[in-house]
Structure formats: structure tokens, C-alpha cells
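Re: the request from the purification team.
They wanted to know what the chain is likely to look like in 3D before they choose a buffer screen. I agreed to run a prediction and write the result into the notebook, where they can find it.
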Amino acid sequence: MSKKRVVATIWPASEWEEVLKQILPYVAIARMNMSHGTYVEHESKIKKVREISPDTKILIDLQWPKIRLGKFPQWPVNYRKWECTHLIYDLGNINNCDKEHLYVSIPHLITEINIWDILLFNDGYISAKVLEKREWNRLYIEMLNNWILSSNKWINTSTASLSIDPLTEKDLADLEFWVNQNPDYVALSFVRSWEDVKKLRDLLDNYNCPAKIIVKIERHEAIQNLDEIIKLADVAMIARWDLWVEVDILELPRLQKLIIDVSKKYGKECIWATQVLESMMSVPRPTRAEMTDLYSAIDLWADYTMLSAESATWDYPFESVKLMADMWWKYGSFWNK
């Protein structure tokens, strides 16, 4: 078993050969985020990783069907608490959002939502309540706090279950291409039940691809079906980016430990992810809270910790990777035996 315990996202700040030579000695798994970039760009990164560090595994993280606002010709738009607006599914106007008309990319958020359900915009920094369903494709909503909105911000709901398939047409096309690159892992987002895992497993089997499946636990339905999901998968990821808006935020610390415990119960590995060293996107030292969070992941027996934007963008990809690796060497005594 490798002693390396860092999962690092490889993107503009870290894709250069000189940077890869610095960070890959500390990286167990190199994550390729399919939400950004082209096949040619990712293929080039994978080739460099394998040439520089043959023992570093490759993770293909499928994009999944994220619900987003369209574009605002003039932005940002400021909202005040109690202001009302319309949320509309109309692809013909997706690039014409304004303060009175917010257009969304996927119809499920309109058709499957109910009055009084809560919507979360922009990583949960602004929330809204559904007051009326005015047409099949239009909701009338009320903002619950002051904040700003700009183009392409994501939307979620913490109170409704949406029937969106975790594998989109883009994901299926991506998968068909990437199985030929022999990835070590494929990550599936927004898993709801064992059926979602089984669908991906069958696709990989049809391609004769032995890649391990990482299930990203980030929906409230996944928490309800946690045992059956992790039992069928190979690795569980505590995907805190969306999980913290899908569940009561007071429950998040407990659920992190629960996901690790269930993973250990079935002998599966677990990745602790999202904003672990977020401040190191722009500064060379983390916050005290981030260091405590990283220590907690190790102390609670996570198998890996993941860097997203910290290793992918801005100025300190090496520093963030090295610090995370140093913490594992200092406190991950089990893995260092």
C-alpha cells in the first residue's frame, strides 16, 4: 500500500512539468476534473503525470448535471432580503438573466420543486423560498438574505429530491473516451442509491475497464442509503462542497465521521475532500481551522485528503501539497508503518 495520502487536482497552476516534478512525489492520486478543459488538455496532463511519477494513480472525475443560472448581460445583481423574482426554465433566454428573471439550465428544479421549498444559490450564500408555481416552467421566489448573483452560479435545494440522473450525456461521452486511457479511478457525483453505482459499474464492465469507482457523498438521499452505496462502490468521498447545503450544517461534522465509519465497516477507502486548505489558494500558510480540519481527517482514519482549487489554481500548489503530505507523515502513524 502506498504511503502517499494526498489527492491533488491537476490544472493550470500545477500542470506544468516543473511543478509536477515538485508535487508528484507527494501525490497518491492525480485528479482530472471533467467540469473544465478539453480531452486534449487532460490527455496531455495524464501523459506527463505517468511519465514523471508512474506510481501516481489517475482519477477521472465526471462532471455530473450541475444546475446553473444562465448569464447576466449586466452583473452582478444585488438582492435584498424579502425581494422577489422569477426562476424560469427557458433555454432560449439562458443568456438573458436580469434581476426579475433568473433562467436555469435544467428543468427539474422548476418541475419537481414544491411551494415553500428552499433554494440555495452561489454555494449557499444566498437562499430563497418558493412562493408560487406560476407556470410549468416558472417559479416565483422570495430571497431570504442579502447577497449578489452573477453569471453561471450553481443552484441547489436542501428540501426537495430531484430525479436528475448522475450520468449525463456528456459524462457518457467522456467515459467512452477516458476508458481508453486506462484510469485507475472514476468518480461519480450526486449518487442517490446503489442503482446509480450499479449503472456506472455496468458501463465500466462493458468497456472491460477495471477502474475503481469513487462515490461522492453529497446528497441527502445518499446519507439515507449510505450502506448500500458504499457497499457496492470501491471508495467513498466526503464531498463537503454540496453536502453542506444538502443537509443541516449542524449535522455535517457528525456525517463526516459516519461516512468514514461506514467505509471502514465494508473495508472501503475514504477520501476527505473540499476546502481542506482553501486559504492556500492565495496565501502560503493555512488558517488554524484548516490545520485542525486536516488533523481531524487523519485522526478519524480517512485514507486520503484531497486538494481541489488549492493545487489547481493560483500561486501555491506545491506548498499546499507539501504541507498536506507533511501532516500525513507527522500524524498518520498507521500509514507510515
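For the purification team: The longest strand covers residues 126-135.
Please add any questions underneath this entry.
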